[in-house]
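User: Show me a protein chain along with its predicted structure.
Assistant: Here is one chain, sequence first, then structure tokens.
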Amino acid sequence: MPATEIGSSDRLLAELRQWVEHETPTPDGAAVNGLMDQAEAGLRAVGAAIERLPGSRGFGDTLVARTPGEGAPVVVAGHLDTVWDHGTLAKSMPFRVEGERAHGPGIYDMKAGSFFAFHSVREILRQGTRTRRPITLLLTPDEEVGSPTSRAPIEAAARGARAVLIPEPAGGPQGACVTGRKGTGGFTLTIEGRSAHAGGNWSEGRSAVVALSRAILAVHDLTDLGRGVTTNVAPIWGGTRPNVIPPEAGCRIDFRAPSLAEAERVIAAIRALGVEEDGIRITLEGGLNRPPLEETAEGLALFEAARAIAGRIGYDLPKQHRGGGSDGNFTAAMGIPTLDGLGCTGAGAHAPEEHIRWADLVPRCAVLCELLETID
């Protein structure tokens, strides 16, 4: 167990409940900031050095809290925003405890993990625990939409850091850490054709919808499960009336790739669809959003340290690669040793059955806290 006293799972759940019942949909910056205010007050009260970076583009602020010390810091980062709209608690997903499960919007992804980070840093400072390195904690407002405003602060904090810890949800029934993630990206594909009467002047038209259908099949064919590459097209749009050759159409494209080389190959193939011929013009906007978090020896060393702590506490901690991206993708691509998936066990991210296994709050938080104390 860490030198810092964590408390009981009952105590942690009671405070985490307050976080869950404060709804924080990503687009509502004011709502996210309300929870950010609570976290800031708790950290200021124990002497953290606070920097509050104002939000932009309608998103909330980014909170940076630092503990005293010399040398390269250990960075821990979590997001406070969720995919759930206002009213979800009242309408369909009230906070509730049913046996070993605690339910609520965002509890698994990732309010439990972000609370771990906050609670660990707060208690380290409150109790005066000595850590081998200073700690930098970031709480961010917009991870669920790709971290458009928080990526730069995350990368700034990680630059020169000893390590980065990401308490995103633990994976699978065994609660695995994440040592590798696919890179994620996307494009908006738009097509301009030529309108014409679908009966009397059919040959004068150039159907943007037909061109879109060919492009969709080409994107779908880029999926290669053996290489770990997947693509998806949704939503799609196009056309106005059945008797009009559609002059406009388009779609959104999502792609995932396990390495930078594979991501670049997929990006080149998608960009090659942008042509102008026979009255059809295809344009593409987008690219790679999160670079891959590729497994490295340094990242595996962090995992082995976490696994050893878990073993002393009394449970096995496996590792896994995951298809979804996180803010750890950014820091790993910078060459900073990064360990992800240090949040709570559970399931149902972005789904109505979202829950954590609340009895695991202490043993999971303890691993994160001891890493913060002992990484040298």
